[in-house]
Amino acid sequence: MVSANPVLTLEQLRYAHLPKPPPGEPGYAEAEVESFLEEVERALALDQETAPALTQSEVRYKRFTPTYLRTAYAPEEVDLLLDKVESEIARRWALFMRDQGGIQI
């Protein structure tokens, strides 16, 4: 059975803190991460009765440019957040498919 409770809320996404990588370690380019998170935010803001605007695969296989610049986020923290995003997208797809009569959950 699919839970009606979100894995990740829009507010949690908006206020997620993404730290910088340790000095000398590569990180994900901030601009790319922020751009994708804006896309995720738009997708999560949609009415849950419509098909989700992203798929699990689009989240799972999203890649960011590694950089040693100061304008980077710690990869581990970004990946953890994207794991939650992927779970929430999967939950929404399952609910949408159930509501469409496409699958039994």
What is the compact description of this entry?
With 105 residues, this protein is mostly helical. It contains four helices and three strands, in the order H-E-H-H-E-E-H.
Task: Summarize the helices and strands and which ones pair or pack.
Elements (H helix, E strand, L loop, with lengths): L9 H5 L12 E3 H16 L10 H5 L5 E2 L4 E2 L1 H25 L6
Description:
This protein has helices spanning 10-14, 30-45, 56-60, 75-99, and strands at 27-29, 66-67, 72-73. The chain has four helices and three strands, in the order H-E-H-H-E-E-H. It has 105 residues and is mostly helical. The longest helix is centred in the C-terminal third of the chain and has 25 residues, at 75-99.
State the helical fraction.
40-55%
Q: Tell me the number of strands.
A: 3
Q: Spans of 5+ residues with little confidence (pLDDT < 50)?
A: none
Mean pLDDT: 90
**In percent, how much strand structure appears in the residues?**
5-15%
Rg for CA atoms: 15 Å
Strand order of the largest sheet: 2-1-3
The count of helical stretches stands at 4
Q: What is the helix/strand order?
A: HEHHEEH
Give the termini distance in whole angstroms. 5 Å
Task: Quickly give the structural class.
Answer: mainly alpha
Give the overall shape. Answer: elongated
| Main sheet: strands, sense, barrel | 3 strands, antiparallel
